[in-house]
From TrEMBL:
Protein known as: NAD(P)/FAD-dependent oxidoreductase
Domain of life: Bacteria
Domain Amine oxidase: 12-488
InterPro entries: Amino_oxidase, CrtISO-like, FAD/NAD-bd_sf
Record organism: Planococcus liqunii
Amino acid sequence: MDQSVLVVGAGIGGLTTASLLAKHGMDVTLLEASSELGGCAGKYQRNEYLFPVGATLGMGLEENGIVERVFRYLEKPFPLEPLETVMEMVHPEATFKFFKDREKHVSQMVRRFTEYERQIRAFYSEIFSVAANIRTLMGPLPVLPPSTPKEWSFLMASLHPSHVKLLPFFNQTLEQRLKRHGLDQLQLFRQMIDALLIDSLQTGSKDASYLLASLALDIYHEGAYYIPGGLYQLAEIMGKSLAENGGTLKKRRTVVKLQQQDRKWTATDQRGNQYQADHVVLNVPIHQLPKLLAPSQLNKLKKPLREGLATPTWTTLSLYIAVDSSKLKAPLPLFRQIASKSGEGLAEGDYFFMSSSRPNDLLRAPAGIQTVTISTHTRFENWDAKDKYEASREAVSGRILRAIEKLIPGFQEAILYLETGAPKAWEHYTGRPNGYVGGFPQTVNAALFNAISHRSGLPGLYVCGDHIFPGAGTIGVATSGIHVARTISGKRLIY
């Protein structure tokens, strides 16, 4: 218990590690570069409007969900009612609703594609069965890829005979299973699935790991939640728990250098302050590591982590809007995925996710006003020069606003405030080089045993967050934080 821990970055992954270890009784210091907690799940204020930085759909909060188990261990219950209708999925040819109830959800698909009833029911039956099997591993939560005898032993102890059924799917893509069920040419159905996957796995059915895709398509049925105010509430509670258990939290501290000597790590912030610890946890985009570590240290990082340092990911354009909902025919729905054209256009404003506050959520805006956070995937090469930057901002945001106006006549006239968050803004406010967000696409070649471990390869240095197994999203980054906390403490902590 006399081991000290320094956590760099107060996103959900870093906060999970820090709060768990402080609750366990360890000496924990958490440094955060900004004035807000939560990273991509944080918030910012503009006059009387509060905007969640990123998506506001709460996940993993159901009984025995990953996040619920963390809060249970912290003795910070966070009861919420699950959404029965999780979101609307708007496509040019049809609008679907994602229902929490599995049978209701499948029946909707069957009604829309009556001639494919047998194939659709067989496909979803397989998806739900495979996902249920995988979720039995989310109880013990073994590390992937395992890299020590203890991790291998825990993985083997977590396996049951039923997991043998997963082996035939291990190296398959979702596209292969769609073909197997005769659904790969059903383009509208496939586009609907791709729209779900691009948000959770950062890729579509063509390349997505089938095992992770089955979990991603099923997990909303376990429970999805509207959190009053936004996901930042989770971050604030973990930050308070850290302080209550003797931990130290310092905001506006940007770490600029990491050095190790005699098995002790020293971090230096932008003010020249130094912090020593036995263990350092980096909850920062891995693309920052070349600025923090010496070349000799970079060469000792594990190969998947080294390769990831030079691998680009998606970036994003976000729109933050306040709307007078009294000027609309009806209040905006809480969550919508909108595809403005058919085909594979899942980026650059042709597809986007739109989350809105409840009209009575006074944490977000005055009564009668809804704040809206919109995000679309985009590639950094469209923003890497000044002339491209402004042209892309205008083109992509215009595409989004026109698509919403077509769906909700009068939307643009109801706008009270609008601000864009382009890639450089994400880089400035969240410290993400080039505005990279969401982690790596969860393809067969990058997922599961091919993922990046939380063990960096340097003794006493760990990584967590959306680039680390199991990937992006609240559940994914919390899981990586749990793995780090377990490794440092030597205890299981959550059950």
